[in-house]
């Protein structure tokens, strides 16, 4: 696994250099995934709107690394702790919207969201017996509906 960590780190450094972004890259193994943490002064550019640029960077680096390694490995890219901040914000939003759904008795739809973000909302509301969640749509980017039980 050391080879995959080093490959991911090296390729991300090279990719950022080609993008003319000065940043520090640290790679490690966490929960079976290779985590690439980036810190720098242009984190807003690298994260993009709703994390879309970050997701694109993750897809690119996954393809690049898996093309060079023998065993497939999952690479998770994070920039200045954005993923945990985004997860907290989504969970808080899900609870707020869930409270509004319980008050009005009418379902509400959020999105479009990627699979990771939808999962956070499903998990945030799974223990509430008066609500249920449902993904709506086709493809990778779907909406999520919060429905009173």
Structure description:
This protein has 149 residues and is of the alpha+beta class. It has helices at 2-18, 43-47, 52-68, 82-104, 115-125, and strands at 23-30, 33-40, 75-79, 108-113, 131-136, 142-148. The chain folds into 2 domains: 2-80, GMP Synthetase, Chain A, domain 3; 85-148, R3H-like domain (Ribosomal Protein S8, Chain: A, domain 1, 2-Layer Sandwich). Helices cover 49% and strands 27% of the residues. The strands form 2 sheets. The chain has a 3-stranded mixed sheet. A 3-stranded antiparallel sheet has the order 4-6-5. Helix 1 crosses helix 3 and helix 4 (82-104) packs across helix 5 (115-125).
Strand order of the largest sheet: 1-2-3
- Poorly predicted runs are none
Main sheet, how many strands, which sense, barrel?
A: 3 strands, mixed
Shape: elongated
Average of the residue pLDDT scores: 94
DSSP, total strands: 6
Sheet/helix structural class: alpha+beta
Task: Spell out the CATH superfamily of the largest domain.
Answer: K homology (KH) domain
Roughly what percent helix?
40-55%
| Tally of helical runs | 5
- Which sequence of SSEs, written as H and E, runs from N to C? HEEHHEHEHEE
The rounded distance between the terminal residues' Cα atoms is 46 Å
Structural domains: how many:
2
The fraction of residues in strands falls at 25-35%
Q: Give the CATH architecture of the largest domain.
A: 2-Layer Sandwich
Radius of gyration: 18 Å
CATH uppermost class of the largest domain = Alpha Beta
């Amino acid at each position: 696994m050391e080879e995959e960590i080093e490959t991911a780190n090296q390729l991300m450094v090279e990719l950022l250099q080609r993008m003319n972004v000065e940043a520090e890259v640290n790679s490690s193994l966490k929960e079976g995934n290779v985590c690439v943490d980036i810190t720098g002064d242009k984190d807003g550019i690298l994260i993009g709107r709703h994390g879309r640029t970050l997701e694109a960077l993750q897809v690119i680096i996954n393809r690049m690394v898996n093309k060079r390694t023998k065993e497939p490995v999952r690479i998770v890219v994070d920039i200045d702790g954005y993923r945990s901040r985004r997860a907290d914000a989504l969970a808080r939003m899900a609870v707020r919207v869930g409270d509004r759904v319980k008050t009005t008795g009418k379902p509400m739809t959020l999105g479009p969201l990627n699979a990771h973000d939808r999962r956070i909302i499903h998990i945030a509301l799974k223990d509430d017996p008066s609500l249920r969640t449902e993904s709506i749509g086709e493809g990778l980017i779907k909406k999520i509906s919060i429905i009173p039980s």
